[in-house]
Amino acid sequence: MTDAGRHVAIIGAGAVGVISAIEALRFGHRVTLIDPGEPGGEQAASYGNAGWLSSHSVIPPAEPGTWKKVPGYLMDPLGPLAIRWSYLPKALPWLIRYLLSSRTEAQVETTARALRDLLKDAPQLHRQLADEAGVPELIERRGVMHVFPSRTPFDGDLGWRIRKRVGIEWLELNEDEMRQREPDLDPRYKFGVVVEEAGRCRDPGSYVAALAAHAVASGAKRVAARATGLRLQDGRLAAVVTESGEIACDAAVVAAGARSKQLSASIGDPLPLETERGYHVMIENPESGPRNSMMASDAKMVVNWTDKGLRAAGTVEIAGLDAAPNWKRAEILRDNLFSMFPKLPKNIPASRIKTWFGHRPSMPDGRPCIGYARATRDVVYAFGHGHIGLVGSARTGRLVAQLLSGKTPEIVLAPFAPSRFL
Predict the structure, then answer these.
(1) Cα angle at 158 between 157 and 163, to 5 degrees?
(2) Where does the record place the FAD dependent oxidoreductase domain (predicted)?
(3) How does DSSP classify residue 70?
(4) How confident is the model over 279-307, as pLDDT tens digits?
(5) On the chain, which terminus has fewer CB atoms closer than 10 Å, C or N?
(6) 15 φ, ψ to 5°?
């Protein structure tokens, strides 16, 4: 079998999967997209994404000293990062790796440099894809703002110092300049930075649906089924195993988000993938709010206008795939949103306030797995993007197509190699 013109089964029709499909088609492959759900539907992590195309999101979730905060995470079920006691024994190996991966500043910078290569130019890449899919209006490149109660937390933030070292630039705003840009923002915020290279997606669910439709129009086939494993024969991939039967193929891409762990394990790669459970709240027709996308340093949440309403997203909960949602976490996002923007009407009907819960697929070191399976180069892994799934999907899809086609990847993939955990 030559590298060109293979039958590629792509497991997962989220942002990474559908863009991988589009890019694989460019190389002349036949593509089958396998996913039990509708692309861009509410069941998908892509749907609930905050909508930021933050090419500067290069800092891993853990930083030096994070281990000191673990007792607080366990004691506060409503904090920015919460760990359910009942899930702690299962999560402990992942948590240990999570803490050890960023215990020094040098480790954080290594990850930041790798992620910078992955995310650089992401808003432009997404705009090109949106143009192709006929939805250019869904991608905007207007920059994003970070707001702080004072300059002190910004100056003391290791993440911003490392961003500067890896070449990210920003514009600093004093209180008056912030107020001119964001008159509805609570006056407790005194300092801000604008990262002008970043962008936003006005409707992540609709964007992924449009990309999937573009892939199908370009020749991809969609199969509504849940993949449960991969079957090898004589060192080559023979089929993707689904609940509805086997799908014979020459190559496969595992891009099933938080459900990728079972698939990689089925061919001998027990990778440490965990789900960071995320929430969002969205107010339809809110009448007030930010003019630009922003992140509040004190609330640890992103606020972004979407075509469906004003969305606030953030916080992390470690509790596995099967535990019931804790909707109080969404209520905290709502309360923080009202606190940030005091002009929001306090009597907004509950019918106009929507909540969502989903699963971020996360590796403990904050870097996704992008590369070949150990057992065969017929299988490419592309999962574990954590908080950068949407923004990182554009270049990831290109890398997947290059790996499938035997081409040299456009960036160095050693920092993302699945073998770093094996």
Answers:
(1) 105
(2) 7-403
(3) H
(4) 999 999 998 999 999 999 998 899 999 99
(5) N
(6) -60, -45
In which order are the strands placed within the sheet that holds 7-11?
221-223, 30-34, 7-11, 251-254, 379-383, 369-372
Q: Which of 376, 396, 380 is nearest to 388 (CA)?
A: 396
What average pLDDT is seen over the chain? 95
What's the CA gap between 212 and 38, in Å, rounded?
9
Above 60 in pLDDT, residue 410? yes
Q: What angle do CA 165, 291, 140 make, to 5 degrees?
A: 65
Residue 1 has pLDDT above 50, yes or no: no
Confidence of residue 273 (pLDDT cuts 50, 70, 90): very high
- pLDDT above 80 for 3: no
Q: Report how far residue 28's alpha carbon sits from residue 5's, in angstroms, rounded to the nearest whole number.
A: 5
The helix/strand/coil state of 187 is coil
* Helix or strand (DSSP H, E) at 410: none
3-state secondary structure of 328: helix
Torsion of CA 256, 261, 262, 263, to 10 degrees: 50
Beta bridge partners of 382: 370
Integer Cα distance of 62 and 105 in angstroms: 11
pLDDT (mean) for 62-69: 91
HSE-CB of 166 using CA atoms within 13 angstroms = 25
